[in-house]
Amino acid sequence: MENLKPQTSFKKRATPVINLEKGKIPPQAVELEEVVLGAMMIDKKGVDEVIDILSTDAFYKVAHQHIFDAINTLFHESQPIDLLTVSQQLKKAQQLEVAGGEFYLVQLTQKVSSSAHIEFHARIILQKYIQRSLIKISSEIIEDSYDETTDVFDLLDQAESKLYDVTQGNLKRSSETASDLVRQAKERIQDIANKEGLSGIPSGFTEVDKLTSGWQPSDLIIIAARPGMGKTALTLSMARNMAVEHNVPVAFFSCEMSSVQLITRLISSETGLSSEKLRTGNLEQHEWEQLNVKVKGLEKAPLFIDDTPSLSIFDLRAKARRLASQHGIKIIMIDYLQLMTAGGTKGGGNREQEISTISRNLKALAKELNVPVIALSQLSRAVETRGGSKRPLLSDLRESGAIEQDADIVSFIYRPEYYKIDEWDDDEHSPTEGQGEFIVAKHRNGGLDEIRLRFVGHLGKFENLESFPFTNEIASSMNAAANDDTFKPDNFPSAQDAFGTPFDTPGLGGGDDEVPF
Predict the structure, then answer these.
(1) Are the CB atoms for 36 and 64 separated by under 8 Å?
(2) 83 lies in a domain?
(3) What are the CA-CA distances from residue 491 to residues 402, 497, 508 (Å)?
(4) Which DSSP helix (H) or strand (E) runs through 33?
(5) Are residues 302 and 408 in the same domain?
(6) Per the record, which residues fall in region Disordered (predicted)?
């Protein structure tokens, strides 16, 4: 008999095309909404478990939104929550009929007998809300993408911003009540008291932190100076203080130097070995040991460096959001603002408008991520042509007055030594060698000041001026004594009077030992 091969049946596969217009309804869980609201009205424990999980917008049914609003109001006013109080609150807000009336409230309480599993149910409601939000965002992106007048980089930025809001679970709300804000402010004041007056991120410079109470969340801080003043040195010193000493995650975006150059400067600052030695690798055995031991803290520091050249504001915001999501960064530093680009393809704008766009977006980024953003900026040559002390002014900000308007703090770095000025213009005429000023010229939420810092040039770092409180005084006295022909030995304290027994202090007992300051 002839073997017959079985016939293979071919079925037409369904086309995997999702029709958005036919038979689609938004994701929802109305029955669970009824159960959750009913449980909240019969059991206070249920309110405590889900009041921080859900928001008014999370409910699909409009009537349920009004009922949740009433429960939320009673909760924040520390009022009892039950069938009667919710009904009265809805009447007071003139929303009872919109919410379905008293009979509907009764029906909700009859659907459940306890608040068991209420948190699980609330999570499902939240998931449906996130799905609806994603559908809405996707529809907006599709519509905007068909618009030829829309800048593609702006479109990408907006899309990522909206999706970031969803992933963080904090979709934007239209407003917050005064009672909520007062409660948050009181909690923050208590936290500040516990941190001994520092409400922000400490810079590591004592006087700067006293003036600012630390760098504050959502603030845009501009640090401006002429080339060679030490802008990068100051921000690297702050980044090191935050990441190494306080374990604060720092994002450092460098448009000027490579990441290896920056970390080499940090190693020099940390180990006390000059940058020249590190570049040449000409180290003694004990210096190699010093290098290996002292960089251990830097190796573990939560410091993230990005050296993308010609970084656009769009790329910066995208990278910053990812760092915030993945590593929880608490502060962003940018070196420096004039090397960034606004991105996009919009023509017709000059450089001043581009800088305005960048500064405006940096402020928006600080508010969006709720972290301080420190941006370095160049000053115009007007400083060089001006006579006198050559201290920078707000009018010296290069290319845009918008920087001054957008920033919460505008500060300058000033080192008179750079201009061959040997003495400060104060009453004491103290020497300027190895010193610089951190000038706070604009402070939206505080005072202004001129704070002196110590500049260690060969290590490329700034320190608190009081780090070596007596070195300059002793050195000045000894130099004056050596150069003054009329100097009388009886008027100058001996080493034993000044420091105690010479044999108790290494380096002062004679010979070629160095003074250990």
Answers:
(1) no
(2) yes
(3) 58, 12, 20
(4) helix 30-42
(5) yes
(6) 485-517
By percentage, how much of the chain surpasses pLDDT 90?
16
Q: Is-catalytic flag, 160? A: no
Helices (H), 77-216: 83-92, 101-110, 118-145, 152-167, 178-194, 206-212
Segment 204-224 shows an average pLDDT of 89
Same-domain check for residues 379 and 326: yes
> Among 87, 84, 111, which residue's Cα sits nearest to residue 99?
87
256, 404, 417, 450: the active-site residue: 256
Do residues 382 and 445 share a domain? Answer: yes
Local confidence band at 167 (pLDDT 50, 70, 90 cut-offs): low
Range of the domain at 102: 30-150
Q: Which residue has the tokens 């006087």?
A: 207
Q: What is the pLDDT of residues 225-259, one digit of tens each?
A: 888 888 888 999 999 888 888 889 999 998 888 88
Instruction: Give the closest residue to 372 by CA, choosing from 171, 151, 221.
Output: 221
Q: Is residue 410 part of a domain?
A: yes
How many Å apart are CA 220 and CA 360, to the nearest integer? 10
pTM value is 0.62
Asked if residue 225 lies in contact with residue 375, where contact means CB atoms within 8 angstroms, the answer is no
492 with 438, same domain? Answer: no
Q: Cα–Cα distance between 86 and 88 in angstroms, integer?
A: 5
